[in-house]
Amino acid sequence: METTKVAVIGVGDISGIYLENLTKLFKQVEVIGVCDLIRERAERAQEKYNIPKIYDTMYDAFADDEVEIILNLTRPYEHFDVTKGALEAGKHVYTEKPLGASKEEGEVLVALAKEKGLSIGGAPDTFLGASLQTCRKLIDDGFIGEPIGFTAAMICRGHESWHPDPEFYYKYGGGPMLDMGPYYVTALVNLLGPVAAVTSVARTTFKQRVITSKPFAGKVIDVEVPTYLTGIMEMANGAVGTLTTTFDVHYNQQARFEVYGSEGTLIVPDPNFFGNTIYLLRQETGEYKEMPLLFDYKENSRGLGLADMATALKGNRPIRAHLDQLFHVLDVMTAFVRSSDKQGREEITSPYKRPAPMKKAQVLGTIEG
Known about the structure:
α5 (103-116) runs antiparallel to α9, α6 (130-140) crosses α7 (176-192) and α7 (176-192) packs across α9 (323-342). Strands 16-15-14-13-7-12-11-8-17 form a nine-stranded mixed sheet. The radius of gyration is 20 Å and the shape is globular. The chain folds into two domains: 4-122, Rossmann fold; 127-291, Dihydrodipicolinate Reductase, domain 2, CATH 3.30.360.10. By secondary structure, the chain is an alpha/beta fold. β1 (4-9), α1 and β2 (29-35) form a beta-alpha-beta unit. 30% of the residues lie in helices and 23% in strands.
C-alpha cells in the first residue's frame, strides 16, 4: 500500500495521540521524522514510535525531499509561522486548530496556499468520527425535519488547575473560542452549512489567573484575551442559534448542544470526542431515544483528518478537513470579537461548502473515497 510521508513539528501534549494513531492505526500515512524545540521530546517520540529521523529545526524538515506533508502540532500562536514556512518550502500542511490566531493570519495562509498550488488541511477532525457523521446523516435524512435552530455551549473554569503549562491559553491565539470553539463551529457548519452572520458580546471576566498546577503553581498570568464569549449565529440555511464559550464558570459536565428541527430535536454529543451518545426526540415518541452510531471511528481517532488528506492528495479528490473550512471557522470565531467590539452584527463572507460524508471502511485505518 502506498503511503504518504509526514514530518511532525511540535511534540507536546497533543502529539501522543496523533503519533499513536498515525503509526499504529492509519495505514496510508508514514511518520518519517519529528522536530521539537526541546530535543528530548523528539528523542522520546522517536524511541517510542520507531520514527526514523529527528530534525534539528523545522527548516530541516521543510528541506527533506521525502516529506510530503508537514503536521503542525505547535502552540496556537505558532501555527501561522510554521504553516507559512512549510508552504514557502513547497510542502502541504495539516495543522492543529486553529488555522491562525487571527482572521488576517488566515487570509495570508489562504492566499499563499493558492499561490503555491498547495493544500492545507486541519483539525478538528472529530467531525469525521462516528458521532458527528451519524448526526449529519440524521439531519440530512430528515429525522428532525427542517432545521430551525440550535443551542451550543462550552463551559469550564479554565486550564490553570490541571494543565502543566497553561499560560498560552490566556495570551494571543488563546481563549475559549479559539481553543474549544473550533470543535463546536466545525460541528455546526458540517451539520447545517455555512454561517451568514454573528452578533455577540465578549468580555474578559478575570484580568489575572493564578496557576495551581505543577510545575508553575503560584505563577500569576495576565489575561490578554476574552474569556466569556456568547452570541447569535445566523446560518445561510435560515437556522438561528446561540453559541457560548467560557473559561470563567465552574461546571462539571458537558453543556448543552442541541439542534432543533420542525419535526424533532437532536442532542449532539460533545464535539471534542469521536464516539459519544446521540439522542433523538421525535414528535411520534415524545421522548429521547438513543441512536446507534452508523460510522467508523468511535475511539479517539485524532489524525483521521490527516489520513483523509493523505489519501485525497494521492487520489486527486477533495480533502474533507479542507482549507475553506478551516478559514470559515476561523472567520466565524474571530467574528465574535469583531461583533462585540463594534457592538453590531458581523456578516460572514468567507466561502464554505460541506465536505462529502465519510464512507464505511472495509479495513479500519484505511480511508475510502
